[in-house]
Amino acid sequence: MTKKRLNKAIIGILGVAAISVSTQASAFTAVSLGVFTGDTISRDDATPYKSWSDIQAKSNMGWVHTADWFKLQVGTQADIAAGNTFNVGFSLTSRGTNQPLNTGGFSIWTSGTSAIAEGGGFHEYNQVRGRNDGGVTTNNDIGNIVDGHDGWVGYAQNGLSFKNGDLDDVAHGGAWNTNSPFLSGGAASASASAATLNLFGLKAGYYLIGLGGVCPDNDSSCMGQSPASRQYTFSVATAAPVPVPGAVWLFGSALAGVAGINRRKRAA
Questions:
Q1: Which of 88, 87, 52 is nearest to 69 (CA)?
Q2: Where does the record locate the signal sequence feature (predicted)?
């Protein structure tokens, strides 16, 4: 082979390799947070200021390859097999004084009883949908999360409210899948420096979390571009169950009293 042909062959190989690397640039690897059985799990890290909400102007999707991805096993293998449930609280808070993540968001998906497998080959993700869930961007390549809307569990964010590229509303605060077969309820909140999501009756299983900064359409009112990454703490802890209002207990006591009176009347 002549030197000229050899050079062309090398260039061709490098070109194929470059294409291969390019197509994998949007793939992600999810860092394991471990197994949650009640004890608090906490992780300090940094993320780009718009990776949860702005793939490009007027799209408002998340950036797959710049967001932080975590996987979490809720419950032991025995818990998963038994279908046990947990009350789990997720919290994203700013950290530090020089470059805190003052507006951030995270989404949670599930693969049910199958361990999370990471995805790739796509650039943007929808914060509030599962695989094959309709719309323009439906996370079809996000991994092995459950098909349809059941694959999405919930989100929380303390940035601006916006519509994403599928015209889904993504509000300041958060939401959870009220029809999910994997949980029985939830509660979300947002403050100046934190976004929280409490999931009640969450089934033991495997969950995928995508996390990043919230800055829809690169809106300068939510964050400046410098520094590029912002520090945060993400934690998983036991969520306190929703308290039953005192009026409900009083109403229950009243019913019990009426029942007692009726029993005494029947006895007489």
A1: 52
A2: 1-27
Evaluate whether residue 37 is within a structural domain: yes
163 within 8 A of 169, measured Cβ to Cβ: yes
Helix (H, G, I), strand (E, B) or coil at 18: helix
User: What CATH number does residue 154 fall under?
Assistant: 2.60.120
pTM comes to: 0.82
Q: Which long-range contacts (CB under 8 A, 24 or more apart) does 237-240 make?
A: 237/40, 237/41, 237/88, 237/89, 237/91, 238/38, 238/40, 238/86, 238/87, 238/88, 238/89, 239/87, 239/88, 239/89, 239/187, 239/198, 239/199, 239/200, 240/87, 240/89, 240/198
CA distance linking residue 258 with residue 246, whole number of Å: 19
Percent of residues in the chain assigned helix, strand, coil, to nearest 5: 20, 35, 45
4 assigned to some structural domain: no
Return mean pLDDT, the chain: 85
Task: Name the domain count of the chain.
Answer: 1
Q: Decide if 253 is inside a domain.
A: no
pLDDT level of residue 19 (50, 70, 90 thresholds): very low
DSSP assignment string, 249-266 = HHHHHHHHHHHHHHHHHH
pLDDT band per the 50, 70, 90 thresholds, residue 38: very high
- Residue 78's SS3 state is helix
- Tokens representing 114 are 């199958």
Q: What is the residue-wise DSSP string for 122-136?
A: -SEE-TT--BT-SSS
Instruction: Confirm whether 248 is domain-assigned.
Output: no
Quote the CA–CA distance of 62 and 94 in Å, as a whole number: 19
Count of beta carbons in the 10 Å neighbourhood of residue 27 = 14
Amino acid in the structure at residue 259: A
Which structural domain, as residue segments, surrounds residue 136?
Answer: 30-242
